[in-house]
Amino acid sequence: MTYGKIFGWLSAGLLALLLGSESSIAQVNDANRGEGKMPAFNGLDMHLGNLYRLSNAQTRSICPENFTGEKGKAAMSIDGPAKNAARELGQGWKVSPYIFVKPKTPFTLAEIDGSGAIQQIWMTPAPLEKCRYQILRFYWDGETEPSVEVPLGDFFACGWGQYCQINSLPVCLNPGSAFNCQWNMPFRKHCKITLENLDDKDFRLYYQINYTLTEVPNDAAYFHAQFRRVLKLPYKEEYAILDGVKGRGQYVGTYMAYESKSTGWWGEGEIKFFMDGDKQFPTIAGTGTEDYFCGSYDFADRKTRLYIPFSTPYTGLPQVIPPERTHTAPQRFGMYRWHIPDPVRFQQDLKVTIQSLGWKKNGAYLPQRDDIASVAYWYQTEPHAKFPALPGKDVLEVRPLEESKVIKEEDIEK
What we know:
Layout lengths: L2 H17 L2 H13 L23 E5 L36 E3 L5 E7 L2 E11 L7 E7 L7 E4 H4 L10 E2 L3 E4 L3 E4 L3 E3 L2 E8 L5 E11 L8 E9 L8 E8 L2 E12 L10 E5 L8 E2 L3 H4 L17 E2 L3 E7 L9 E8 L5 E3 L2 E6 L2 E3 L5 E3 L3 E10 L12 H4 L18
Parallel strand pairs: 6-13
Antiparallel strand pairs: 1-12, 2-12, 3-11, 4-9, 4-10, 4-12, 5-6, 5-11, 7-8, 8-9, 13-25, 14-22, 15-20, 15-21, 15-25, 16-17, 16-22, 18-19, 19-20, 23-24
């Protein structure tokens, strides 16, 4: 940029400030665009502070009323599953509001060509109790291995097959069984989202996937999510929330569906982040399970000893099953922790573990054998390392709580 251009730009800016006129400000904006100072807004990273900005991004939406998201192609169905309900009204009157996913057959919920980002997903599954058998998979830019492979309920931080209210920024659950997520998921060439029904019966699903077609910045990484479950953690082993990640990115969230099988407190375990070549010792270690999920002292009222469920923008314990006093067993919990203002950044590799740890009667720590399921959420460059095989249907199953057995301290090593 020449000195003359710099002087001209400064003069125009000063004139706009002095006169406060729309025309003068517009002249400055035009000049800035010409010098590359104010690139066109791509319509991503939306928040209250930039809702006023215009963009060439194109808004599209996929649902059973428009499986392709094409412009001007919604609400055209004449033979959808609700055609009988709409028989007196006809085409355009909610003929296809939901789908039935057949057993053992993946259903393509969305397939999108071009560059853009998923911005919001809404789903209402029926029945809710069967969500562990419904596997969501996301594929970016033509990859053959999914970047997201998670049971439907767990993806939305609701893994126990029972509704719970969640009021967080990227995920919210609303009455009666409305699953919502607002993770920003960019892609550059192609996006494919599927749902596989592992159950023996048809699964009904209402859904809407809202996205934008636009330019994606060069430094945008791809969204990933991975599910794991251990029915009975081996003695003195740490639970692996995530392992084997290769590439550069940032870890952005954890959901855990935790079943305590002992009568004592279960949340003393430390979370650990091993990154960029860490071996025996991690770079980051927490001080306790409830500490990592931003609670303290057993998530309990200090007087009544009752658990206090909570849900906030970045962290929560929205699910306590049953809502009993602390230190009863077996008991189930749902917890989330979103690293939105504090992502855990890695340059080469990442491993995340957490301990299942309680107390012995003599005041020493007790490694526990609890039932733990989790979802790890992160962004990274592609290609990603292949995920471990998803647990089979017998491991995914959410059994009735009354079938779970308490593990006594004297039996913990068996």
